[in-house]
Amino acid sequence: MTTHGENVLPFEEADIRAAASVATQYSGEGADPELDRVYDHVKALDPAGRRFGRVLRDTIDQLLNGEVTGRYDWKTLFKTEKTHAGTLVEINLQREFRFADGKAMDYQIAGVDVDCKFSQQFGGWMIPPEAVGHLCLLAWADDYKSFWSVGLVRIRNEWLNTGNNRDLKLTIKAAHRDKIRWIWHNEDLPENVLLHMDAADRDAVFTADSGQRRLNELFRRVQKRRIGRNVVRTVAQQKDYMKRVRGNGGSRSALRAEGILIMGDYASHRDIAGQLGLPLPDEGEFISARVVAARPHHQDAPRVTLDGKQWVIAQPDDPVEAGPALPSHTRQDG
Hints:
This protein is of the alpha+beta class. 33% of the residues lie in helices and 19% in strands.
């Protein structure tokens, strides 16, 4: 083993030479068939990137653990929790895509060893020295910007910043980030509504004195925006949080008198949202909107027929009226 002072490097001299040889072999532009093979395989698994984006969203929510803690802001995580984020992303991606264990790196994808690195700060991926010469799957998600990216790069020693941290992990020099081949770049991260909503509205939600009233206030104040299951869980802070949304005493029935519809990820609900010109709720999401019966001044507004009437999204000066019942539903596949 080679040593530096009293520290023992976590790999053999032979490993360094082998890694350098691989890096040299694939140093030319477009001359990395293994990277091409991994890229094509990952892209085929998730052509639109929806599954990758959902894993990153769910991992951040897993760390925040809003049902127990009420947290919704990355800045409120403990340092140890932030450090654990990379491990959770690695685990959750492997579970979602069933990547095989790697021989020397985290995964084996399309027969190639691939390391996985995540950072909430773009460019902050910490590369261990044993990854030199190997492919790295680099993931980034920023809850404040609501963007995420995933790319591939073969690590070369000369592309890394020098550093003195104890575990010898290094970052990729900013000038060499153009070597990353992005599978998806600056994609929309499912929104953390609690983080991005108006502060006064957020305070009104959290000062309500029960989980049910907090949810009612959430759907009342956050309309025409998709609200994810983890937002509902964080606001309700109850095990039966989904029950608190539905009819029979939940927010859906409580807000109907105000004309507020809460549409979920059921096919019939998505169809209603689409006819009203609203974003379509994805799996585990909801969207609320106040509606009124269509009148002459709504002539150009998208509309939907429910309970034998045509309904449109209410304008601010439209008087409040009770809304229609949502139809029975079947869950949207996928």
